[in-house]
Structure formats: C-alpha cells, structure tokens
Fold:
Amino acid sequence: MFYKRIKDYILLCMLITFLTISISKAKYSKCNIGACERCVLSEQISMNECCSNPSIHDVCNFCDQNSETEVDISDCLCK
Structure:
C-alpha cells in the first residue's frame, strides 16, 4: 500500500513536469525570436521577458516590422 502511494506520487510528479515543459515549449514556439533578439540588442530586456510577456512581445514585433535599423527600433521602443 505504501509503495503504491509512492509510485502514484512519482507518476504525478512526472506528469506535472511533462506538462510544464510542454507549456514552456509552446510559449516559445509562438515567439518571434528574430524580433526579440533585435529588441534585446536595442533595449535592456531579456529574451525570456520578450517571449513570455505578450505586451512586450507585441511591441517588439511592431517595432521590428516598422523599423529598418537598430536605431529605428530603439526609437520605436522608447515611444
């Protein structure tokens, strides 16, 4: 009985770990990594902030699409 509970607990932990990894991979699969890299170079944000925060990600995407140089991206991000 005791071993069955331990086995169930271990299986539950493995399931939670699998789901956590799957969710984090899905989050980054929707991330425009090119736009985030250019934002990271232009501003003081991390790649994780850009990909995990939808509002920052949207601004980086917008600025990346409407800017031709890194200076333009910096100006866009400051507005």
